[in-house]
Amino acid sequence: MTVHARPRLEHPALAAHAEQRQQSVQNRIADAITRFAGSMLFVYVHIVWFALWIGFRAEKFPFGLLTMIVSLEAIFLSTFVMISQNRGDAARQVFADHQYKMIREEEGQNEELLQLSNQILELTRAIHKMTVRS
Prior knowledge:
Layout: H1 12-22, H2 25-37, H3 40-55, H4 64-133
Helix pairs in contact: 1-4, 2-4
């Protein structure tokens, strides 16, 4: 049995935002680090790293250097989490702005339709009056 993956449909405004974001080297680096840090590979690398560090006795207990390295890594990772959140917020804002623009356009169209409906109603009443008099 063959399983076919469905194509990913992305909102045009979000696709344009992602394309614009990809033009910056800093954004591409931050996105790559965030993708890696949020993966199981990241977890496995750390499990192996800590096991080797402790197993080969790279330093004596209480592992001051390892603690410092992990603390520095945590500082940088928390920064990348915030960068990722900011990226998500920016994408949501782009989507919200696009939706707001579409709603405004629809409101204008609805107003036009309402005016046309009122004109049709007035014409229908005028025709009705003319036919009733005859």
